[in-house]
Write a structure and sequence with these properties.
It contains 7 helices and 9 strands. It is α+β, with helices and mostly antiparallel strands.
Amino acid sequence: MRKILKKFLPVSLVLALLCPPALAADTPVLWMDGGNRTGNVRLTLERLGDQEVNSVQLELTLPGSYPNADFTLSGGISGQFSQCRTEQLSGQTRITLYIDSMKTLNHGGKASLGTLTLGDGCKAPSSAQLTILNRGLETSGISTIPVRSTSDSSSGSSSSGSSSSGNNSSGNSSSSETVKPADPVVLPFTDVQEDMWYYSAVQYVYAQGLMAGTTTSTFSPDMSTSRGMIVTILHRLSGSPAGGSSNFTDVATDMYYADAVAWAAANGVVSGYGDGRFGPNDPITREQAAVILRGYARLNGKSVSAQADLSGFTDAGQISPFALEAMRWAHAEGLINGTSPSTLTPGGTATRAQAAVLLRGFCENIIFDH
C-alpha cells in the first residue's frame, strides 16, 4: 500500500495541475476540532457527496512552529496507511498528510480522518489544499477548501464563568467552543434500526470514530459495555496519546485496552479497585461511568462543580461513597438520569446502546460545549 501511495500520488498531482477540475456544487469542508487548547486536532472532511475516497492528500499551513507534528488515523479501521510531513517556513509550518485506505473513507458524505498532534495549541487556517483519489487512482484535482474549527471562537479566557448546566447562547463570541453538528452517516449495522431510541446516538459515536461495530455488520446494542471499552473510547477522544504502562495486575500489555488504561491511570481518569486490579472486562456500572467521565472532564479543563440533589431517589443511599459527587455531577449535567421517577440504579450496568447515548451527551454538552 505504501508503494502505491508513493508511486501514484505524485502522478495524480501532476494530472491535477494539467487538468483543473470544474467547480463542484458542494465544496468539501475540513473541520478541525480541539486544537486551540489541547494541540490534539481531530480532522474531519465533510460535504464529500457520494464520491469514492480511498486516498487523500491534505496540506495545511499553520502560523507558528510545529516541528514535531504527528498524525494518527482514526481508530478501529484496518487497511490504512498514513504519513505526515512537516516543512518549516518563515513563522509558519506547512503540514502535508497522506492517507491511503483499502476501503472508502467516505461514509454518508463525511470522512473522519484522524488526529493531528501538534504538542501545543494552534489557530486553524482559513483554507487547506485537498487532493482526493478513488480506488482506481483517479483524481478530481487539487482543491482549495474552507476550514472550520470548533475553537475559532475561543478567546482563551473562558475556563470558568459559564454555568455547568449552561445553555450555549447563540452567536456569543465569548463562548469557549462551538459545537460542530454531526452529519448523519449510513450505519452498516443490521441490528440498529432507524426507529430505535439510540439510533442517532450510534450514528454520532460511529461517525466520530469513538465506537465501532462488534463485527462489520453488527453493533450489538444490548451487549454490556466493559470498563476497558469506556476507557478506550475516551482515549480515542483524546487522540490516542501515549500512556506508557500501567501497574494493574489484570491489564495485559497485548490487550486492545492496555494503552488506554495506562493513559487514563497516569492522568487520574481511573484508579482501579484499590487492590491492584482494574477489571477491564467487568461490565461498567452507572456510578463507575460517572466517576470516569467526571475525571475525563476535569482533565480537559471542564467545570465539574455542579452538584444535584439526589434525595428524591429512593436508592440514592446505594451510591458508593467514592461515586457520590460524580453521580451528583452527572445528574446535574443531564448525563445520568433516573431509571424510573424514583430510582437511579447506581449499580446497574450499561449496554452499548446506553453507552452511545451517554457518550453523545457527554461530547456535545460537556466536552464541546463549555
